[in-house]
Task: structure prediction
Amino acid sequence: MSSGAFFRTLSATCNASRPPKQRFSRLFVHRLAIARVADFYTWLACGFESPHRSSHPMSFRSSTRRHLWCTTLLVSSAAIVLAGCDPASSSKPRTSSGTRTVRHQAVDRTGYLRPEAVGAAIAAPPWIAHLTPVDLDRDGRLDLIGCESQENRIFWLRQASPGRYEEVTVGTDLLAPVHVEAADMDADGDLDLLVSLMGYVFPNNDKIGSVVILENDGSQHFAPHVVLDHTSRVTDVRAGDFNEDGRMDLAVGQFGYDQGEIRWLEQTSPWQFKEHVLLELSGAINVLVADFNGDRRLDIVALISQQWEEIYFFENTGGAFRSKRIWGSTNEDYGSSGIYLTDLNNDTRPDILYTNGDGFGPAALPGPRPWHGVQWLENTGGGFFRYHRIGDLPGAYSPVSVDLDQDGHLDVVAVSAYSDWDKKNPRVVSMMWFRNDGRFNFEPQILAYAPKDLITLAVGDFDGDGSPVLATGGFYIFAPHINMGRITLWRR
Amino acid sequence: MGKKTLLAGILVCLAAAIAVGTIAWRARQRAAILAAALPDRPDLSAWAPELAARITSCETRVRERTDPISALGELSRLYHANGFLPEASHCYGALTVLDPANGRWAYRDAIILSGFGENEPAIERLRQVPTRPVDYVPARLRLGETLLKVGNIDDAIGVYRAILETHPKESYALLGLARCDIERERWQDAREKLERLVDQTNYMLGYDLIVSVYERLGETARAAAIRGQMRAWGAFRDMLDPWMEELLEDSYDPYQLSLASGAAARRPDHALALRRLERAITLAPETAALRFQLASLLLERKEYVKAREQFERCTQLAPKFADGWAHLSGLLATVGDRAGADRILEEGLRNCPDSPGLHMMNGHRLKRIGRLEEAIAEYRRSIELRPTEADAYIELGTTLIGAGRSAEGISVLESALVAEPQHPFIVCTLALHAIEQRDEAAARKWIEQARLQPRVKPVDMKQVTEAYSATFGRRAP
Result:
């Protein structure tokens, strides 16, 4: 069997193809039949039970006989009506309540975006774990910051002049950095960098993680402050003033391995933080910070992978947090790989985009699963969320929302990694666009087969012309090291 | 005609009409369900022709009403086992109506639903799984887990407790109850259950939660003792689930079979693991990854001859796959064929000149035959190719120290801590070296590092602290 079989999840026919008209008409006939029988029984019951029956002009006996005849006639009719009506609608095989069953044929749109490699040339197989778009030097041009996990460094891909990028190292000797965010932590008007350090990328339960803030001196020279160390491996740090004291605090996701945590760090004085543990489960991938329930306080949402496969909402109750699981799969191999903050339906409530595509498991090499893909959790208000499947994508990572075709509707793009399990298939998708038709039907459109093994995706208006540009980073841990890309910009 | 006769006649007519109507209605209902039961067929062009043929056969049998339930059941298995989950779910919708006594249909549908986090409909499905004549415990465990996922802790506890009443050793029910305790911050209750659980399962379950619970309760020494047993435990295994396991007999997906084999091997059920892999290889005989997995499994079973055959096949199929060469060479060394091992290593390096693992093995080989400088060069090459793993640093560092080049060796070991922080061997070695050099400040630094690392064995810590006391005349920090 060809490994192309794994594209089945991309190329299956739409399962929602039963004609809706037929479905509704069957339902209507059936309901009509039930309504008729119900009306008859109501009438019959009234006839027998009416307290006024003795005053009826017909005698009780004649009335009884009438009822018996009617019963015979009408029950027989009812049986015949029921037998005649199409019962399919009442017992029709149920389909899922969510959008899981909706599948579309993926369209090959590999020429839609034009790739451009930026930054340093490839020497060793790159380990670009994360990219974030930010105008770090506030010169009006969007830059990228990112993590090179193998080289233990944070880099700034500075857009020195329109379309010309220079790679500058802004942090070194940072052990296995996997996530970097920009925030003004000391309220001095420039952007500092929050770095999540695993210490060691591959499975390890030692307390070797740390959080380092690279303090910006205003000229993009950075001084490191270790604000958390000797802790479970850290995978994400985001800033927010959770206790509304005017100082930026931190939300921290710690994957660990067997043990991990979600915690928040309360800034008590410059570069000093007090720890508060919110959850003790291994496998944290991302944390998101936003006012999710509309109470004007910053809350935290966290994605937990490993065997748990859950998403938690930590409601800020005013400097303290109340935890609630808002989604959870019972499939311990679901493969949670990333969440992303967006307002997909433009209702002002922040929603959550979510990928599951981690294909590491008990086989010799990682690979695809039938359930890998992209979904979103619609924020329905008050701390409640509704799950919607967007589409299938083996090896899915790093979802983003972007109006890629500029049609006024936010689309979804995700990248893919490690799904070419037998290393034979050059046609394994590495970037997929789920085009929103405006009614939240997402049509999968293949944007790229190469470079392969992309685990980070960012989007921004890098050209300053209002058109979105995508940025991807490759992370290569399995030979053969072919079809590699370090940092690539993708534009129309 | 008497009134009684009339009445009787009416009643007979009535009964007959109802009976006829019911039978007709049921027959039509069944026909309608069967007509709607077949999902649209997905694109099977990339799959084994046998799968498409079996699906066609099932569809025909359903349409022609030739043993339709059995045919629809087979169709559902084919779709589910090969990852066509919406199609499988569609079949289950009909099967749960047509054959409600068979709990598999509702159960498997629930697995699909809850796998996607659609937990409320999954709960509904799980409640439909009959408990008689077969009380399928995994279905009840899944119900408990799904209730837990939706935050219905009381009902989850009820389900788990009911299971434990009839199956007091059911570990997953105990784990579920422990999770419920943790959700409610009943740390002592959770601790009691988790201690039973790790004892019952030899730390296959509960190893993760119990450490956090101990830390919550301030019992850091107990927590550290468990943490110290393994660099990365990752021991969690999902429950044995025969109703899901039997689906794999209908799988035509070699990768999913290889995953199932890996899961079986970890349980460990080697016989099943072998069967799954052999089927995978039948489907994809030219796939090196499958040969490698099979060879590794055979090696674990000490079936050296068969393992060698598979490793050799792997290297033929994928000569650029360095692990194939490395394991084949290692196998030959294990069975005493040193010359063969060296030859394979050489061949491997010729095919994979940038393999850090093969360069490190070659370093071992050269060191063994006393060619130290060449071994050192090989270790350096391995580090250059893979600077993120401590192993080659340790080999290089110890080789240099052994060759009397201590300063160089120590410097290499210090570099190794960049690759793998808090590596227990390195931290202890550096502490002992500092003590030997009478560098008390450095010794204190490394001992403090060692104390942060629960994987430093007590016997090693004892050796370090005693050496410190003996050298500096005071207690180690």
Observations:
- The two ends of chain A are 36 Å apart (CA to CA).
